[in-house]
Amino acid sequence: VSCILTEHWLCRWTGKPSTISDWSVAITGLLYGLTLPPDLPLWMVFVGGVFGVAVAKFLFGGLGMNAFNAALVGRAFLQAAFPQPMTHWQAPFAEGRFEHIPSSVLAMPFWEPAYDAVTTATPLALMKFEAQFAGGRELMAGLTSGSVGETCGVLILLGGVYLVARNMMNWRIPASIFATVAAITWAFQLYDPATYPGPVFMLFSGGLMLGAVFMATDMVASPITNTGCWLYGALIGLLVVVIRFWGGMPEGVMYAILLANAVSPHIDNWIQPRVFGTGRGAS
Fold first, then answer.
1. What are the two backbone dihedrals, phi and then psi, of residue 55, each rounded to the nearest 5 degrees?
2. Do 179 and 147 fall into the same domain?
3. 53-100 residue pLDDT tens
4. Helix, strand, coil percentages, rounded to 5, for the chain
């Protein structure tokens, strides 16, 4: 709702035709919501949605002009502005979890939210700070804590297969991300299995599946050439592993995709063949 209202108001304020009817901003809002903790106060959700659409999309010229994924920009803003609520996770399927709305969701603006549910650490936090690795079945089935749309990797993969079958996604990007993360993780696990988890854990934990399938494949913010997509995905996979293993935070998918978005235009420029008689050495 915040994303749709923001785009509609900005279009009216600037005298541009409303673009709500193409549903692009609704998809942005849906993906943005899937990246958030389930008990985040609604007013924070609204503020992040406004920021993502206004800054990452509208300031760059609107639909088809944004250099960064608007949903991830909104989440990055919340991560910087409200770090404590953004790292508060509820235990999955806790007793009474679905019997009432958590009080924190309805917290008043700028009040400290009161949490009334059992909290737990995400699999990546357990890996980062306690060297504990969740099982593959738990990760695939969504039996771990995490953001709204990132826990059940199997369903996300099925969604990706559907998009590929409908020719609505370049499969090379998630394939490159998965291959890069799996290869690097496998090598480090061979080196020190007590410190580094296996490829299954790295692929199905955190927001990697959601980011690789639905965020990194944003056609506007990703390369247009097939070779560029392979390089773009490999860069994201490399950054994810680096941030997860040696960064200050357990998760790095959001930052990896946004950094790759910034490099995306240059990737196509680097690999695009020059027309005969142009470029370096041309007279």
1. -90, -50
2. yes
3. 999 988 888 777 888 999 999 999 999 999 888 887 777 766 555 566
4. 60, 0, 40
